[in-house]
Amino acid sequence: MQVKPVVNYKSPKYPDKEETLKNPGILLTLPERWRSNAYAAVAFSSLLLLTLTACSRKDSTGENEQFTGQVAPVFIHGDGRGSFGCESVAPPAFLSEEEAFSVIKEEAQRQGIVFTRNAPSLQGVAIPETDIYVLGEEANMGRQKGDLALDGYDAEKQVAFEFVSRDDINAWARENTEWLSVESYHFLEAAKVLAEGLEGRTKGINLAVFYDPNYNYYSPEIQEIIENSAGDFQLMEEKIKERVKADLQEQVRDFLNWLKGQNII
Amino acid sequence: MHFTLHLTNNCNMACAYCYVDRSNIQTMTAVIARRAVDLAAGMTPGGDSAGIVFFGGEPLLYKELICETIDYANWKEKQAGCYFHYKVTTNGLLLDKDFLEYSRKNNLFIALSHDGVQAAHDRHRRDTEGRGTYETLARKAQMLLAARPYAPVLMTVNPDTARYYAESVEYLYNLGFRYLICSLNYAAAWQEDDLAMLAGEYGKLAEFYYRLTLAEEKFYLSPFEVKISSHINRRTYCHKRCELGLKQISVAPDGRLYPCVQFVGDDSYVLGDVYAGVNEKRRQHIYLQNEREKESCRDCAVRKRCNHYCGCLNKQATGSIDLVSPVLCAHERLLLPIADKLAERLFKKRNAMFIQKHYNEYYPIVSLVEDMKKPLL
Ligand code: SF4
What is the overall mean pLDDT for chain A? Predict the structure, then answer.
């Protein structure tokens, strides 16, 4: 037996504490056993108040206190990984900006949010600095200052979104002297870095950062699709697209629930 | 800061996997125990509480020494304005009503070593005559839980008992234990087949955990809690892991100080003694040596969530704090995805118990209030 480093490990699909603190509404879910014990319920609500106050105090220490808009946590549905090049035997099924826009628009409309492409830009914010020629699972992601043109906006409700697409990752890529035949995309990681960088800088807009939910070629999700497609590349591509669109819908649904939890809609 | 007082290397049992060297029986004197308490008081920042842990061999062979030491520490609290809390780890054979009553009054936390169902427990945990201790312990465990319902149980899994892992955890849970700390004996000769068996057992345990959480039961099952926490608290998790020699010091029966329990008796890890105190340079050196990323794990995608940093485990398994045990590695690789899948299922259900337990930092307080106060009618 030998020590064997893990090469790839999927980011788990449950949030870390920081993500939860940005959306403390989730902490309101009360076990039945506490509901039926008045002492526990009282202790719970008083202590929760402390947590919520601590969160909002943290928020209000940002540089731009006058702006009340919030950045939602990144809702994780889909690995947010993908590659393009000789390694990828399955057809690339990245979501284009247009495809993502129509999925997000349709889902949001169900809750009365009408996104248009006429969205504002956020100037001088921290955006990810990506590296698409990176081997292994580490994203090698940094931060850089730049402008961000948002992808969708409902002016009336002051709600907007940014969708992290393959085009974005390429646009944010650092100057690279090395070149590999495989391009590697870390959408989820980039979305997290972006969401963090936009914190307190949304000019009063409540903002979601969605990401391309795609999967690595070796992921069980893609392997299952390959197995069930009998070598038909077109079918594979359709199935992968279907899968990632469903994941993106889930991201949007979580965002809408979050907006409700925050009393924004 | 914890001070683990190795009261003795003597024991009334002869467990097959015990690592304590009993070739030369030594017992701590009351004077050394008191000096250790002084040192703990001096090294713990004001306002914090220092932990005094009684360890062995079997510490209950010297109950009087435990009581004397606690008396002295209580006195010291008043004199020096410091605070202590106490814990003893025992094989349980010498637990009796009087000692349990004493532990309750003095807030001495008792952790019981127990390997689960009879087939697992009696395989290794035998008395000095070679007889299994399961039967005796069943009564003692009930007595312990009646007096101290929060007592944790420490279970060790060996290759030849891996197949009883899930059954043993359920057995201990049904006995009434709610804090189940399970560890592998990494020093044993694990084979691929044993690890495959272990993976199957973790699968069963994950179901068990899932069921209990859906039923809103309160419990702590260490393998899953630790791995789930390594993701949920990922920003703080790596800083809270083994900080060799910084958060805990082991005091040998002769008064010499070591960074952790596995090092006691190894001259190359002596940090000082209860009279001269800790050699800070030495302590820093050992701490930093352990903090360096292990060569074998540098490129691992899960290294931030892995136990390979634990110098004590490495020392136990490979004899060196820098060498990671392949068994530990294999165990981490098999446990992590099972724990994540379990957490994903519970989170997806937005299970209230799971969310409170893992995300609400006030969970232990609310839980305690609930236990102390019966529902209002
Ligand atoms: S012990 Fe194994 S799983 Fe853990 S960090 Fe090292 S290589 Fe990775």
Answer: 81
Question: Which residues in chain A have their CB less than 8 angstroms from residue B302's CB?
Answer: 6, 9
Q: Indicate the helix (H) or strand (E) that contains B51.
A: strand B49-55
Nearest CA in chain B to A254: B348
Assess contact for A185 and A84: CB atoms under 8 A: yes
Closest CA to B52 of B9, B28, B87: B87
**Nearest CB to B375 within list A4, A37, A138:** A37
State how far the Cα of A17 lies from the Cα of A34, in Å rounded to an integer: 22
Looking at the fold, whether A101 and A194 belong to one and the same domain comes out as: yes
Atom of ligand 1 nearest to the CA of A6: 8
Q: Are residues A139 and A253 in the same domain?
A: yes
Domain boundary among A8, A27, A55: A55
Higher pLDDT, A203 or B339: B339
List the domain range (segments joined by +) for residue A206: 69-261
Q: Tell me, what's the ipTM?
A: 0.86
| Ligand 1 atom closest to residue B328's alpha carbon, by position in its atom list | 1
User: Which residue did the predictor score with more confidence, A245 or B286?
Assistant: A245
**Cβ proximity of A223 and A13 under 8 Å:** no
pLDDT at A23 over 80: no
pTM: 0.67
Task: Residue A15: list chain B partners with CB under 8 A.
Answer: 232, 347
Q: Establish if A32 belongs to a structural domain.
A: yes
pLDDT band at A71 (very low <50, low <70, confident <90, very high): confident
Q: Look at residue A180 and tell me if it is in a domain.
A: yes
